[in-house]
C-alpha cells in the first residue's frame, strides 16, 4: 500500500508546495507544537485552507475533526510521499563559485541528500577536497557515479558546457538533473530535468514588479 | 500603446517560459539566423507549436504566413515585454559562498541587470570588494539602496536571518525579492517574492525520479 501511495502521480502544483509544507511542519515540531488545525497551518503558510486540505488529501493525510493534524505525522507523511525517507546520493558538476557553494550547502542532510561526488575539468581543481568529497575529473564520471551510487546530479557549469555535461551524466546512468545553466537541455525520454535559472527568475521578477508597481 | 502592452498581465506559465524563448532566440541570432517558423522554434525549444504561438500572441507578436517570425523582432519583443529594455539595479544580500557566487555571476549584463549593492553583517566582509562593488553593512541598506537605485534584491543568507533581511529590504523601499533561503517570507501587500529553493527542487526531483523510474 505504501508503495502505491508513493508512486501515485501528484499534480505538479501540489508537488511544488510539499517542500514548503514540510519545512513549516519541521519548524512547528522543533517549536514543540504537537497538533495544528488546517486553518492555522494554512494561515501560517499563506495558502488557502481548502487548497492545503486538497493537497494533503492526495497523500491520504487526513486531519481529525476537532483535533486537527498531528504535526509529526504530517511531516513524516510528506517526507515519505516525496521519497525522502531513504538516502539520495548526489553529484555536483562544476566546481566554480556556484558549484562550490552548492557543494558546501549544509541543508542537504535533513532531506537525506548526500553529496557523494563532485566533478570538474580543471586539473587545478581535480583531486582537491570540498568538505569531505574529492573533486573528480568529469571523464571519471562513469566509475565514480557507479561507485558512489549517484542518482541526482546538479549541473553548475557555464552554459556552453551544460549539454556536454548532461550527456555525460546520462551516459553514466544518472536520470535526474537539476540544471543551473540558463539553457534548455536535450535529454532522452525517461530523464528528468528541472531548471534553476537565476537569470530567468530575475527577469520574471522584473516583469512582475512593473505589473505590480507600475 | 507600448505601455499598455507591457503592463498587460500574462499568465504565470507563459511568463515563466519567456526567458527560455528569449535565450533560444539570442542563440539563433548569434548563429546568424534571421527568420524562424513557429514549428521549428517550438521543436528547438521542446514545447508544443500551439503553445508557443499562444504565448507569443499574448505579447502581440505574430509571425508572417510562409515567412515565420523575425528572430531579432521576436527577441526584442520578449525583452520589452519582460521589461528588460531598461537597467535594473540589483542588490545581493549575504556574502557567503552562495552570495559571492551570485555577485560574481557574469550573465546579468545581457538582461540589463546590474549589481549595485552587496550587503552582509560580518565586519570582516564589510568594506571588501566583489568585482567592483564594495560590501556594505546591512544597517546601511536604506542609504545605499537609495543612492544606487536598487529595485530587486536577492536574499542569500541563512534561513534564520532571511525574514529579518526581507524586512530590512522592504523598509529600505525594495519591493521585489528573490529568496534563496528555504523559508516562506511574510511581506506586506505589493511586495513580490520569488523563491529559489535548491532543497525544494531536489526534493521534487527525487519524487519525480521515483514516479518515473520506480
Number of helices of chain A: 9
The main sheet of chain A orders its strands as 5-6-4-3-7-8-9
Helix content of chain A: 40-55%
Average pLDDT of chain A: 90
Gyration radius of chain A (Cα, Å) is 20 Å
Order of H and E elements of chain A = HHEHHEHEHEEEHEHEEH
Beta-strand share of residues of chain A:
15-25%
Query: Low-confidence stretches of chain A at least 5 residues in length (pLDDT < 50)?
Result: 1-7
Which pair of chains forms the biggest interface, and how many residues does each contribute?
A-B, 66 and 66 residues
Instruction: Indicate the multimeric state.
Output: homodimer
DSSP strand count of chain A? 9
Structure explained in plain terms:
The structure is a homodimer of 214-residue chains. The first copy, chain A, has 214 residues and is an alpha/beta fold. Helix content of chain A is 47%, strand content 17%. In chain A, the strands form 2 sheets. A 7-stranded mixed β-sheet of chain A has the order 5-6-4-3-7-8-9, sandwiched between helices. In chain A, strands 1-2 form a two-stranded antiparallel sheet. In chain A, helix 2 crosses helix 5. Chain A starts with a helix and ends with a helix. The N terminus of chain A is likely disordered. At the A-B interface, helix 2, helix 6, strand 8, strand 9 and helix 9 of A face helix 2, helix 6, strand 8, strand 9 and helix 9 of B.
Summarize the SSE layout with pairings.
The structure is a homodimer of 214-residue chains.
Chain A (H helix, E strand, L loop, with lengths): L1 H6 L4 H19 L4 E2 L1 H8 L3 H10 L10 E2 H12 L5 E6 L3 H8 L8 E8 L8 E2 L2 E5 L3 H8 L3 E4 L3 H13 L4 E4 L12 E4 L2 H16 L1
Helix pairs in contact in A: 2-5
Amino acid at each position: 500500500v505504501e508503495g502505491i501511495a508513493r508512486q501515485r502521480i501528484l499534480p505538479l502544483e501540489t508537488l511544488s508546495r510539499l517542500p514548503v509544507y514540510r519545512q513549516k511542519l519541521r519548524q512547528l515540531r522543533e517549536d514543540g507544537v504537537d497538533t495544528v488545525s488546517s486553518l492555522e497551518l494554512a494561515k501560517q503558510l499563506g495558502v488557502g485552507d481548502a487548497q492545503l486540505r486538497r493537497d494533503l488529501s492526495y497523500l491520504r493525510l487526513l486531519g481529525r475533526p476537532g483535533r486537527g493534524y498531528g504535526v509529526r505525522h504530517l511531516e513524516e507523511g510528506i517526507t515519505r510521499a516525496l521519497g525522502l525517507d531513504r538516502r539520495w546520493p548526489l553529484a555536483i558538476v562544476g566546481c566554480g563559485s556556484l558549484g562550490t557553494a552548492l557543494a558546501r550547502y549544509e541543508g542537504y542532510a535533513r532531506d537525506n541528500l548526500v553529496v557523494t561526488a563532485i566533478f570538474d575539468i580543471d586539473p587545478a581543481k581535480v583531486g582537491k577536497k570540498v568538505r569531505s568529497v574529492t573533486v573528480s575529473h568529469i571523464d571519471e564520471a562513469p566509475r565514480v557515479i557507479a561507485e558512489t551510487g549517484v542518482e541526482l546530479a546538479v549541473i553548475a557549469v557555464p552554459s556552453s558546457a551544460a549539454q556536454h555535461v548532461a550527456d555525460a551524466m546520462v551516459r553514466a546512468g544518472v536520470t535526474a538533473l537539476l540544471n543551473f545553466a540558463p539553457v534548455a537541455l536535450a535529454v532522452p525520454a525517461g530523464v528528468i530535468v528541472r531548471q534553476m535559472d537565476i537569470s530567468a527568475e530575475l527577469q520574471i521578477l522584473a516583469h512582475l514588479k512593473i505589473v505590480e508597481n507600475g
